[in-house]
Design goal:
By secondary structure, this protein is an alpha+beta fold. The protein folds into two domains: 62 residues, no CATH class; 109 residues, 4-Layer Sandwich (Double-stranded beta-helix), CATH 3.60.130.10. The protein contains nine helices and eight strands. It has a three-stranded mixed sheet. A three-stranded antiparallel sheet has the order 5-4-8. The longest helix has 14 residues. The termini are far apart.
Length: 223
């Protein structure tokens, strides 16, 4: 297995193995898991990725989430991020599917609003546009490291309320159904988080983050 650093702070490309090698060979899994803990984002290029292969690879890292109501793939382990409607055409900008895509373009940490947050997101491209199709990532570990000591001290014990509504309301306040609202109550998260595998601290941020305990909303939003 070859590891190619993609950015000075995080992210690496893995070469020389397939996704199924991770599933079938414990030593390969251990190496990939260690790389994930160190680099946060791993890229596997030119892989043959069916839904089944992606699910098998993902299960090697733990139980899979069931896609929530209101998303394409509801009730399955697959969440489809797309702007293509059932008729095979690109949906109009005011369509619900387009609003979901717009909301996903907000900087976020996947599933921070759930009672049990996700360890990782396993993204596989099926149809990629020729332009404007980038997926961007940021290291909140590097962001924490760049804060001055006094700012780190201020943020060390901050508690933030995460809710799916906070991100979706930025796009359309009528976007979330009553069923989703009932199933996804707010959760409390520390603003700082320690990786249990290596003890490295990071910020735990998301567009799903709203209120900060003990702080008025305007000040919390500016922070």
């Amino acid at each position: 297995m070859e590891l190619i650093q993609l950015h000075q702070d995080f992210a690496a490309e893995i070469r020389g193995i397939s996704l199924m090698d991770v599933v079938t060979d414990e030593s390969v899994y251990d190496a990939v898991r260690a790389a994930f803990e160190s680099h946060s984002v791993l890229v596997f290029r030119s892989q043959v990725i069916s839904d089944e292969v992606q699910a098998l690879f993902s299960r090697a890292f733990g139980p899979l989430e069931i896609t929530k109501p209101g998303a394409v793939g509801t009730g399955t382990v697959y969440a489809h991020i797309t702007n293509i409607g059932p008729d095979g055409n690109t949906v109009e900008p005011d369509a619900q599917l387009a609003k979901v895509v717009a909301a996903n373009q907000l900087w976020h940490t996947d599933s921070s609003f759930k009672q049990r947050p996700a360890l990782a997101s396993m993204l596989g491209a099926r149809i990629v546009p020729r332009s404007d199709s980038e997926t961007q990532f940021v290291s909140t570990r590097a962001a924490w490291a760049r804060l001055c000591e006094s700012d780190q001290e201020k943020l060390a014990n901050v508690i933030v309320e995460h809710n799916y509504l906070y991100s979706r309301d930025q796009i359309d306040k009528n976007m979330v159904s009553d069923e989703e609202r009932a199933l996804l109550p707010s959760v409390r998260r520390r603003l700082t988080w320690l990786n249990p595998a290596n003890g490295q601290p990071s910020l735990y941020l998301a567009s799903h983050a709203g209120r900060i305990e003990g702080m008025d909303d305007d000040r919390a939003k500016s922070m």
